[in-house]
Amino acid sequence: MPSILSGFDSVQQALAAQQFALSISQRNVANANDPAYTRQVAVFSPDADGSVSGISGVTLQASRDRFLDYSISRELQTLGENSVAYDALQQIDAILGGNSGEGLQQALSDFFGTFSSLTTAPEDLVLRQQVLTSANALAAEFQRAYSGIQHVQTLQDRSMTALIQTVNSITAQIADLNQLIPLAHGTQSESEFTMRDSRQQLLEQLSGLMDISYYETESGEITVTTRQGGLLVAGDQSRDLSLTRLSPGAFYSVQLEGVDITATLESGRLGGLIKARDNSIAGYLDSLDDMAAAIIERVNDQHADGSDLNGSMGGDFFTPFTEIIPGSNTGCARSMSVAITDPRLIAAADAGAGVGDNTNAQLLAGIGDENLFSSSAETIYQYYARLIYQIGSAESAAEENISTQNNLLEQLKNQRDASFGVNLDEEAVNIIKYQKAYQASARYANILDALSDEILQLLGV
Q1: pLDDT of res. 399
Q2: What is d(CA 405, CA 403) in angstroms, rounded to the nearest whole number?
Q3: What torsion, rounded to 10 degrees, do the Cα atoms 298, 301, 304, 306 define?
Q4: pLDDT for res 260
Q5: Residue among 54, 30, 55, 27 at smallest CA distance from 41
Q6: In Å, how far are 120, 127, 317, 453 from 353, measured between CA atoms?
Q7: Domain extents for the chain?
Q8: Is 178 left (phi over 0), alpha (psi -120 to 50) or beta?
Q9: What is the pLDDT of residues 86-95, one digit of tens each?
Q10: CB hemisphere CA count around 367 (13 angstroms)
Q11: What is the Rg, in whole angstroms, of the alpha carbon atoms belonging to the chain?
Q12: Which pTM was predicted?
């Protein structure tokens, strides 16, 4: 038969259990606004395996929905990629002047417009000088636009350094928590769930930086890999990413354990940087090079067919482009320059015609309306307008994707909070419940105390 003394032991355990449960509810309330915090629950069971904080019959639980957590991580990866793309596209749009009519578009219009003006008085040195001035302005604008976009591309490359350092720091912290969480679980330490929340927050931070996959093992450790299977974290060990330049002047490539994984990184900020650097920005630079090459070749060909004020055949108007890479126009826009400095050498007249002839000037002015691109049958204006449209459309799409991702993330996080976040009303009820239970246990202790006094008095002690 249980004794009064054993009743005191039970009361002591009950008071401690209710006090512990009350502290858990108070902790939940204190962390109600922490999005990384998962609600913790004290579970009372006489059959509980082990104890928490030395209190037998009490376990601490905090559950997460792995599907929701993983869905949030995937959306964060897409958000990181689009955020990088949008930032880069905004800068490029500003460099090219967008649809404002400024920048390269205006320079093209001015250049061919001065040839049109020259047709009115082909021997006028002032009009001839205006042609050279607009030509130099056009070359300078190509150089400015190319250098500006190339600078954005270089910034994407340089940004990878700090990003890789952050990735390595996060994977190292995840590995450390992988070591501590199973130990905390084995000792029934209430710190286990705090560490689990911290680890999940790190996983979500990592998801925003690069495309990853992860899963939890039976021991409670998290294994993290790249989307293509490259191992980043296994148990208490992490593997660092590194950057290297495969050749002098080349962009960074991402290495994992000596393997180049650059091409496999597709999302997160790191994947976004690589895509912008190697694909979209590189494509915009190629378009500028192709435009410059088309203008140089066509203007030079037409200029060579005419004659200047001295009666000589026209030479190169622009400095001919020397290919750096055989069969490629790479670098043409950056190196574009005017070959002549003397306005008298502009071949405005037809070959063999007098100085007052304007035939070749008319043909040079008409180049702006010719289809200079055999692959697309577009004029130089149409080609450039399409480039601006592509950039603007990509920018709008990235902005829309960011909005969509943010809305999806908000919905997923709200769903997670509703299921596993802190409900202040529920915690208020729990606090009252645990306080009342604590008071009841205290009253039971008082009753046991009174009974023990009566027994002692009956025994004459």
Answers
A1: 95
A2: 6
A3: -70
A4: 95
A5: 27
A6: 16, 19, 19, 133
A7: 4-63+422-458, 71-407
A8: alpha
A9: 999 999 999 9
A10: 26
A11: 37
A12: 0.84
